[in-house]
Amino acid sequence: MTALVFALQPEQVCIAMDTLVVGADDRMPMAFQRKFLSFSESDLVVAGTGHAGFINGWFQHLQSNLRGATIDDLNEEAPRVFRASVSAEGGLSGLTATIYHFGYSTREQRYAGYAYRSEHSFRSDRLQYALGYKPVVSVTPNDDIRFPEFLIDIILEQQRQDCLQPIAERVGIGGEIEFVVMSGRTIHVETVHRFSSYEAEAIHIERRAEA
User: What are phi and psi of 129, to 5 degrees?
Assistant: First the structure.
């Protein structure tokens, strides 16, 4: 799983995600990994939460077969591909997965976002122009919202609440926070925060690799 926060607007999209990957069985740190793909030639950013194998499979499919496809192109094809993939694998092993597409729609001349959720048979769900975040936490926007600071604060609260859960129920949030801005038909990516848990996670990952 992962932390995902986004602010979707017609003229701009801001996205923030953590980089920690935890083991499905023990929920302990396994790796640090970027959890989204950006395609500047398509004005597209693709992210995912949930089943890591399914998400990485879509990333690989995009990189190998669909480079240059726009968000409009993918919205027509993605649900069919997702359903076929899950059917071929015999399901998602009891897990869930959601793929998010953010990009510039040349048809509408504005930015758009879609979510494809396994719980909804990967139908195309158009995202509203608003703030979105997963897992859900209590957020109180103010009149002076600044990016990326506002999104960082949300993810820090997501991590704090996640750590209060029994380990078997934790999402696993940590590593660093990577921030994406889509605006003016350009995509900018940078690392904007390192969690205080980073060093302990790095040690666990190194020991796990040596075991």
Answer: -75, 100
Its domain, for residue 48, covers 4-210
Question: Mean of the pLDDT values across residues 140-164?
Answer: 92
50 pLDDT higher than 90 = no
Q: Say how many domains are in the chain.
A: 1
pTM score: 0.94
What residues does 51 pair with on adjacent strands? Answer: none
Q: Which of 61, 90, 77, 67 is nearest to 116 (CA)?
A: 77
In Å, the largest CA–CA distance within the chain is 52
Q: Is the pLDDT of residue 140 over 90?
A: no
Handedness of CA 29, 92, 112, 157 (dihedral sign): negative
Q: Is 80 exceeded by the pLDDT of residue 68?
A: yes
- Residue 11 sits in a domain whose CATH number is 3.60.20.10
State the first-to-last Cα distance of the chain, in angstroms, to the nearest integer. Answer: 24
38, 119, 137, 16: CA torsion to nearest 10 = 0
Q: Angle, to 10 degrees, between the axis of helix 71-89 and the axis of helix 52-65?
A: 130
CA 150 to chain CA mean position, Å: 17
